[in-house]
Amino acid sequence: MEHFTIATVAEESPDFRRVLWTGKHTQLVIMTIPPDGEIGEEVHEVDQILTFVSGTGEARVNGQTRKVTQGDLVIVPAGQKHNFVNAGPNPLVLYTIYGPPEHADQAVHHSKEQAEAMEQAGKDEPPTS
């Protein structure tokens, strides 16, 4: 059994992205988006469910924009263009579940730039089995 006090774990992480757990069909990831930061516009081939732990931001999904704050949950179906932007003075902290996994097991990306570099280098691929 894996057990996380997820809001506490997410809020204590200074990393842009940290994979906490990877299963056969899903993956649990925590993210911290700094003030004036964003995830960056992207499209995944997997479904994604994001739950916001603290901070304020904007969810931009498939041409729609909504404000997000602590306790909000946003679903991004596979194939939809999306971005999440920090719109407040404090970090925007969230945890997300990908189905199936989207990132390398146990990946830690300290910054958005490091995450993008790892992805471009092919070093952030999800497990294949």
UniProtKB/TrEMBL annotation:
Name of the protein: Cupin type-2 domain-containing protein
Domain called Cupin type-2: residue spans: 30-98
Database matches in SUPFAM superfamilies: RmlC-like cupins
A family per Pfam: Cupin_2
Region (Disordered): 104-129
